[in-house]
């Protein structure tokens, strides 16, 4: 059992060698708004995605642009080379719900309406384009 797990772990590690990730946690915007921007850049080459995010009108685009720059930097540090245009693309980008802040707003006749202040987590994976065919 131990040898099989070890071999599986080595295979998994080898498969993730060219893949690099970055996470952004507890962003104070709703996941629905963030997913609109994430869908815009999913599967796109990184420098094209940076251009799309930089000129987008959405507020969530600034957060994802910062995350993408961090992921590019992580990839450069891991592989000890500079990222070139056409080399990297966004393999996966996921937006998950984070814990909600629950607040009360005063309402008529002594009632209180609940306000849910949503937040989200974003996870981004980069991969090299030549690995797409493998």
Identify the notable features of this structure and list them briefly.
134 residues, alpha+beta, Ribosomal Protein L22, Chain A, three-stranded antiparallel sheet, 4 helices, 5 strands, 40% helix, flat
Description of the molecule:
With 134 residues, the protein is of the alpha+beta class. The chain has helices at residues 2-15, 31-41, 46-54, 60-79, and strands spanning 20-27, 88-97, 101-106, 112-117, 120-128. It has one domain (19-131): Ribosomal Protein L22, Chain A (Alpha-Beta Complex). It is built from 4 helices and 5 strands; from the N terminus they run H-E-H-H-H-E-E-E-E. The strands form 2 sheets. The protein has a 3-stranded antiparallel β-sheet with strand order 1-5-2. The chain has a two-stranded antiparallel ribbon with strand order 3-4. The model has no long low-confidence stretch (mean pLDDT 92).
Helix content: 40-55%
Number of helices: 4
Coarse structural class:
alpha+beta
Poorly predicted runs are none
CATH C-level class is Alpha Beta
- Name of the CATH architecture: Alpha-Beta Complex
Instruction: Report the C-alpha radius of gyration, rounded.
Output: 19 Å
Number of domains: 1
Topology:
Elements: H1 2-15, E1 20-27, H2 31-41, H3 46-54, H4 60-79, E2 88-97, E3 101-106, E4 112-117, E5 120-128
Antiparallel strand pairs: 1-5, 2-5, 3-4
Give a short synopsis of this structure.
The protein is 40% helix and 29% strand. The protein contains four helices and five strands.
């Amino acid at each position: 059992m131990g040898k099989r797990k070890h071999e599986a772990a080595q295979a998994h590690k080898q498969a993730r060698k060219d893949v690099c990730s970055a996470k952004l946690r507890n962003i104070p915007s709703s996941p629905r708004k963030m997913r609109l921007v994430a869908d815009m850049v999913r599967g796109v080459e990184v420098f094209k995605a940076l251009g799309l995010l930089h000129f987008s009108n959405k507020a969530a685009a600034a957060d994802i642009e910062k995350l993408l720059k961090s992921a590019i930097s992580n990839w450069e540090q891991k592989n000890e080379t500079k990222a070139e245009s056409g080399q990297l693309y966004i393999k996966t980008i996921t937006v998950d719900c984070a814990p909600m802040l629950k607040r009360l707003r005063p309402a008529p006749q002594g009632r209180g309406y609940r306000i849910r202040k949503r937040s989200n987590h974003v996870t981004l994976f980069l991969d090299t384009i030549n690995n797409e065919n493998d």
